[in-house]
Amino acid sequence: MTPFGVYVHVPFCASRCGYCDFNTYTASELDGSGASPDGWLEAARREIAMAARRLGPRPVETVFVGGGTPSLIGASRLGAVVEEIRSEFGLVPHAEVTTESNPESTSPEFFADLRSAGFTRVSLGMQSAAPHVLALLERRHTPGRAVEAAREARAAGFEHVNLDLIYATPGETDDDLRRSADAVLDAGVDHVSAYALIVEDGTALARRVRRGEVPRPDDDVAAARYELLDDRLHAAGFGWYEVSNWSLPGAECRHNMGYWRDGDWWGVGPGAHSHVDGVRWWNVKHPARYASLLADGASPSDGSEELTDDERYTERVMLRLRLAEGLDLGLLDAPGRAAADRARGEGLLRPFTGGRAVLTRRGRLLADRVVTDLLTAAPVRS
Ligand SMILES: C[S@@+](CC[C@H](N)C(=O)[O-])C[C@H]1O[C@@H](n2cnc3c(N)ncnc32)[C@H](O)[C@@H]1O
Ligand code: SF4
């Protein structure tokens, strides 16, 4: 049976970080719209009940509450969402139940309440240990608060804690990133996600880059920083299991593995995406519209598509090649296999063992190019 997870999107933030284009709203942006955390919770519960009616019995293996800033709405609302999922679907024994949190809206009591509500994993956005980098990213917390929050989560009984980093921000130095890696390791977490800063269209950062106030992040710098971070984490016993994710053995995020291995998930909340049995759909983005549709007993879906065989093939190659477990070479046909042989010859894939294509470290830096080569060589498959 395909693994099944539930993603829950919390669309609220205290302020908007200059680089972020996620579907999230500040209080002033929602002013007058009627949207509120309680309205969101009621609507999310309705959507969970609707999902359970639609899918029938399907125990949930993983829950991931993301955002936005889930910690902003408090542990009791987050707990209520988990309770609704438990009562409507049921959770498998040892289900993984994660929430993202921002360091500045957490406390020891918050983490203790999350534990009591059944959460098993916390993911905190740290981004950097350098104050000037956090300032450029327009983060609201100090570097110290992120590390402290990770320690508080562990002290509250969370065995699984992730810290997110962003690297290659303009103005960041190699030493800044070394200090960020050391701070993450000091915090005693078992998982790290790290992304090169992307300048997303329509963000405040993109406008600053366009005006020449901030230089554009440099690809070569990003590649060197990735290697620096990978070395540091590797030396501390962390292995990469996806190009942007490292963990101690056994601490991989099961929910995200579900996305990458073609699993099924229902996305609850404004703008959330779902994927069940080869059909993909997405919800309306605005929290007020989302809540009003559900209050009327209507579906919050804003569109759907059935994936064609070509699309499924593309997704499989794209996502699985980024995993350390690699891509089954049997999925590729002759032209795709020939492209994989060429990539291996160029040192982008490891020598094939167990019939799998696995990226080398240089290949991880050029993962998009390898994926494109494999796909353009073998465009049609089931
Ligand atoms: C959208 S946030 C949601 C969780 C939480 N609000 C936070 O800020 O940590 C999840 C993660 O996405 C990453 N992210 C968001 N926008 C990004 C961008 N433009 N470039 C690189 N990473 C980004 C950050 O590492 C962030 O921690
Ligand atoms: S706190 Fe997280 S979700 Fe909110 S704006 Fe910042 S990066 Fe985006």
UniProtKB/TrEMBL annotation:
Domain of life the protein comes from: Bacteria
GO CC terms, sorted: cytoplasm
Domain Radical SAM core: 1-239
Alphabetical list of SMART domains matching this protein: Elp3 (SM00729)
Leader sequence residues: none
Matching PROSITE patterns: RADICAL_SAM
Gene3D superfamilies the record matches: Aldolase class I
An MF annotation (GO) of this entry: metal ion binding
Keywords: 4Fe-4S, Chaperone, Cytoplasm, Heme, Iron, Iron-sulfur, Metal-binding, S-adenosyl-L-methionine
Pfam short name (any one): HemN_C
Subcellular location field: Cytoplasm
NCBIfam families given in the database record: hemN_rel
Function per UniProt: Probably acts as a heme chaperone, transferring heme to an unknown acceptor. Binds one molecule of heme per monomer, possibly covalently. Binds 1 [4Fe-4S] cluster. The cluster is coordinated with 3 cysteines and an exchangeable S-adenosyl-L-methionine.
Name of the protein this chain belongs to: Heme chaperone HemW
The species this protein was found in: Pseudonocardia endophytica
Lineage: Bacteria, Bacillati, Actinomycetota, Actinomycetes, Pseudonocardiales
